[in-house]
Amino acid sequence: MGLPVFLADFAGALPAPGDSVVVDGPEGRHAVASRRTQPGDTVYLTDGEDRRVLATVSAVEGKSSLVAQVRSAELVERPFPHVTVVQALPKSERSELAVDLAVEAGADAIVPWSARNCIARWTGPKAGKGREKWAATSRETAKQARRSWIPPVAELHSTSQVADLIASADGAMVLHEAATDSFETVLRGFGEPKNLIFIVGPEGGVSDEEIEIFTAAGARPVVLGPTVLRTSAAAAVALGALGPLTGRWA
């Protein structure tokens, strides 16, 4: 079993070996009360922004705080290219699952999208609450996957806002079961992109109008394989396909 990962505040700087780091608040309660971390345990601490340290717990204070001594520290390099997943809002029972699988598979950023055929709708206060749930899922999944980068979750995007993202990217793909171009063929056509966007439609599919808007902005519809994927799994499958075709798994 791998070492547990806990979030810590490094004040924007990489700690040095021998430094002490305090983990408190909700994360401290999770470490001490839920995970029953004890003095002498070895843990990873990360600030969620690429900084990570290997540390030994030196003291536990009450039920919500621990102190750890840094043994080694590193700035973890992110995989290349950077991948943003634009995820149409799935039905409620699959909403957090889509984020969980994408982050576990390596997504670098998540953008919720209010597509025309979405069954779920984030309106009014639901938009903020929905984003908070996705952000919490991203954070916990990143820790479970032992990632040092917690993918941010953007505000809810409209179709026109997604088109703006596409226009600024090096490459964008609409994952579409009716597309004729393969994932690999389109990826090769992008050369060596620094950043990619994967667009995942809702259960009802991406509309023809949305395809036209995204294509005009520079996106390419692609098919991943012979089976039709659920909206919650498509991004993870695409990230898995991307790994051996680029340097992300190097």
Q: Which segments are poorly predicted (pLDDT under 50) over 5 or more consecutive residues? A: none
* Beta content: 15-25%
Number of beta strands: 10
Secondary-structure element string: EEHEEEEHEHHEHEHEH
Read across the widest sheet, the strand sequence of neighbours is 1-3-4-5-2
End-to-end separation in angstroms reads 23 Å
The general outline is elongated
Q: Helix coverage percent of residues?
A: 25-40%
Number of helices: 7
Structural class call reads: alpha/beta
Oligomer: single chain
Describe it.
It contains 7 helices and 10 strands. Strands 1-3-4-5-2 form a 5-stranded mixed sheet, with helices on one face. A 5-stranded parallel sheet has the order 7-6-9-8-10, sandwiched between helices. The two termini are 23 Å apart. A hairpin with a 3-residue loop joins strand 4 and strand 5. The model has no long low-confidence stretch (mean pLDDT 95). With 250 residues, the protein is an alpha/beta fold. The radius of gyration is 20 Å and the shape is elongated. It is 34% helix and 24% strand. The relative contact order is 0.15. Helix 2 runs parallel beside helix 3, helix 2 packs parallel to helix 7 and helix 4 packs parallel to helix 6.
